């Protein structure tokens, strides 16, 4: 949790401001931390990551399954702490800003604040007039119909997929999960945030296109 909280404390002089920023961030990420007797929320994202990798890099996915890593638990940390340990401090902040801009949804504030029992008509929220008011990633989801899905995939999952794709050559040579973890640990502080976001967007488009072709 300190990985997520520390940027707020460092950047904001007022502890109250830091607290409320952290509180809003945790609301955004709360699905990752919800746990039941059988699972933790982030497991759904790991499952989605497996499905994405199977589509965009079937050879890598098959190799990871052969090693016993088909549940993608080795990517757990990336999703839980939002890549804070994979990128430098400055790059991780830059990455967060890019992710949230790409995922921007004008109705997001209302989802955090309003009574969940209220309907959209009674909530007082203004109707969004144009798709251009959404972030680029959200626009792609809306055009593909992904926005209407039960659980739209967050861009963070595609960011992890882009890291795996970038290291695919080394990962397919790994002889065990310990080597997979070692390869991923070696990228700490050596990733470029802009390149990672660009790769994630390309993979997202590729995945949506292949998924659409499969459903026809």
Automatic annotation (TrEMBL):
User: Where is the Rab-GAP TBC domain positioned along the sequence?
Assistant: 1-103
SUPFAM superfamilies per the UniProt record, alphabetical:
Ypt/Rab-GAP domain of gyp1p
Please give the Pfam families that the UniProt record associates with this protein. RabGAP-TBC (PF00566)
> Which PANTHER family does its entry note?
TBC1 DOMAIN FAMILY MEMBER 17-LIKE (PTHR22957:SF685), TBC1 DOMAIN FAMILY MEMBER GTPASE-ACTIVATING PROTEIN (PTHR22957)
Full protein name: GTPase activating protein
Q: Which gene encodes it?
A: LOC102589093
């Amino acid at each position: 949790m300190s990985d997520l909280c520390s940027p707020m404390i460092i950047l904001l002089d007022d502890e109250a401001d830091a607290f409320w920023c952290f509180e809003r961030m945790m609301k955004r990420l709360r699905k990752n931390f919800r746990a039941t007797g059988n699972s933790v929320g982030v497991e759904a994202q790991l499952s989605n990551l497996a499905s994405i990798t199977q589509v965009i890099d079937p050879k890598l996915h098959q190799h990871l399954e052969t090693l016993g890593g088909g549940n993608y638990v080795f990517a757990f940390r990336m999703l839980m702490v939002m890549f804070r340990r994979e990128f430098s401090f400055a790059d991780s902040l830059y990455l967060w800003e890019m992710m949230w801009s790409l995922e921007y949804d004008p109705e997001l504030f209302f989802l955090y604040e309003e009574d969940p029992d209220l309907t959209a008509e009674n909530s007082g929220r203004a109707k969004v007039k144009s798709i251009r008011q959404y972030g680029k990633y959200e626009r792609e989801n809306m055009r593909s119909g992904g926005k209407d899905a039960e659980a739209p995939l967050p861009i963070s999952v595609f960011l992890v997929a882009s890291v795996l794709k970038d290291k695919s050559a080394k990962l397919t040579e790994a002889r065990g999960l310990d080597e997979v973890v070692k390869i991923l640990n070696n990228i700490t502080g050596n990733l470029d945030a802009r390149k990672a976001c660009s790769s994630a967007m390309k993979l997202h488009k590729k995945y949506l296109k292949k998924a659409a072709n499969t459903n026809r």
